[in-house]
Amino acid sequence: MEKYAKNLQDEEFLRRCRVYMLLKNTYYLQDYVIVSGTQGVNRGKLEEIFRNFDSEGLAVSYQLAALVWLHDAFYNDRYKREALEEAEHIFAGYLKERREETLAAFLSAEAVGRFFGLRVMSREAEVNKKEILGFAQDNSKLVKEELAEILSGQRGWQEEVKSLLSSKKAAERELAIRVMLRWQGESEDYKEVFSTALEKEKNGKVRELLEKALNLEGEGSSGAKMLSLEDLVKEIHKGGKKRSLAWAYEAPFSVVHRAGGQEAGEDYLQAVLLCYAVVDGCGVSTKAAMLAEDLNREEFAVYVNELFDKWMEAGAEAKKRWVLYAASIHGGFEIIKRLQHQVQEWPQQARGAIAAEAVKALSLNPLPQALLIVDGISRKFKFKQVKAAAGQALEFAAAQLGISREELADRIVPDLGFDGNGERSFDYGERKFRVAITPALEIEVYDESGKKLKNMPSPGKRDDEKKAAAAYEEFKQMKKQMKMTVSSQKMRLELALSSGRKWGTEAWEQLFVKNPVMHQFAIGLVWGIYEGEELLQSFRYMEDGSFNTEDEEEYELPQEGRIGLVHPIELSRESLEVWKQQLEDYEIRQPIEQLERAVYARTGEEGEGKNLERFGGMILNDLSFGGKLQTAGWYRGPVEDGGCFNTYYRVDEDAGIGAQISFSGSFVGGENEDITVYEGEFYPAETLKKGYVYSDEDKAKAFLLKDVPERYFSEIVLQLTKATASSQERNEDWRKETG
What we know:
Elements: H1 2-8, H2 11-24, H3 29-33, H4 43-55, H5 60-73, H6 77-97, H7 99-108, H8 111-121, H9 129-133, H10 141-152, H11 158-163, H12 170-183, H13 191-200, H14 204-213, H15 229-237, H16 266-277, H17 286-292, H18 297-313, H19 322-330, H20 332-345, H21 352-362, H22 368-379, H23 384-401, H24 405-411, E1 423-427, E2 432-437, E3 443-446, E4 452-453, H25 465-499, E5 502-504, H26 505-512, H27 516-523, E6 526-531, E7 534-541, E8 547-548, E9 562-565, H28 573-585, H29 604-607, E10 618-621, H30 622-631, E11 635-636, E12 644-652, E13 657-667, E14 674-684, H31 685-688, H32 696-699, H33 710-723, E15 729-730, H34 734-738
Antiparallel strand pairs: 1-2, 2-3, 3-4, 5-9, 6-7, 6-9, 7-8, 10-14, 10-15, 11-12, 12-13, 13-14
């Protein structure tokens, strides 16, 4: 509170706040507003606080500063949001009663206060149009994003927004373009407006935005294609922009050559990097692509990997996050594993935002293996922020292709150069080698005589030097990609088994029959034809391309069938044993645990209630409990003030359902104590997406256990069984602790 008094240079504010705090006999304002930890911000108490502020004669600017202080004081993001939401109607009243004073308070506030002021004014947007538009020059990202959101909902303000394109301020022109891009395609076409603006635009960032809006980067009379590469380099360097790259050039880079064989100059290479460094909003740059096209691809990949190294050594500053995009887009296969490693590391160092940015960058790497990794992160990752970023990246990529995210995930599975028989040839000139994928998803190497080798031999003196070196390098890369692909697809199939994903017959054949890598997965699993969620027929895909039943009778796939992985809970004991025997007879080792999977059925008594209590009272170490759950795809529940949390949850959007388990509580950063497990519940996915269930309205949405799909129930109980396996004792009075 003292910092606001200093900022406002008025001790009267501090004195009056202290008087008020003493009157209410409360030491922390946030403790006064929060009720019993989990109930959130109490609207009545918040109103009482501001009524008392008002009766003390505090100016609106001071009251707004107090609200910002309250917002900043909260540890929990939920409370921050609720504090502002609940205060909106209070300040909306001030805006009506003391308009000039309140508007002045909004304008002079810190960024959070200005953001809040916009929210309040937008409640009656038409009345406050002039004042809302007055925030167009605001430099705060928080304020700019909120203003763009508000303007996007005001289609009647088109003329006012268009007029911003003529502003002398680049920020206002940029805002106008971003809002009009949101309107584009609904009922308006702004191409002519954008073209006119582009002709006179001099600001690099705004010009880049206009070019993207018009899809003109690299073509047309205004685009870069009309320039020679050398002229484009000069244009990019205008304004001394290369100063922003000085940090990267304190030590030399490796040499990169142009397509013609001459060495690429430093200005040329810097121009490629500047395409990323000076653009507001990271992503693909067609100008960079044009310049990079004339460079030796392998050498430039080394160059941007070195750039990534230098950025990491300098502390991986968030404001230079553009390096992630430049490195990912041009860094080839080498950068994929490095980015994947950092995505794992950064969240553990409290750098979740930069990890999320790295995932988005990774999704732009042109190799399919990168999207495979992003897909895996989107399905199961310990940190929700990063998992969400991966999901958003895939949703965007899928939308660009006009397909679903799952269809995209199927399409990006690489064939790694293998033919329909699961074989690939490597030519050393004098010698050739055949590589085959085994049913166990391993690599076998054969020479021309058919002799099986332990590994691909190194190039020898009799081999064609260039051919052999290239083939040997291809083999090494293929092995790395194979390992990555197999790992990714195992996780995908585990999740498909758990959630009950189904494929149409054509889509299933495209993925599991025609792709030589997935073919090997398919023959090791038992599949089913489904009608809705009901299993009609189980079958197996044979190595020779035929299908058979558990009785080993030939089976023909229906043209319109829905195919999914059979869950053992769907099979009778007899059928399960027959299938196990058939796989044993054919010496098939399943690529994921399927037929041997433990199954858990609910009891009749259990089904009539909403609470899963079979783990209630189990006592175990919180690090062990949380670690196993998070590895299985669960997330820590909301953190209360003081750093305490008492739930874990998971959301399976494909299945439309989620689960939550509560326990006695642990502290962020302070885990390693014994906790008691309480009960679990199942909710619609939408209810759990926000991460917490507190209100009676939300709690009422919990499913009766008998209404939870059998497969999903079994999988959740399996995960909780594994997470609580270390428990050696039980608290029989646990229900008393839950009230």
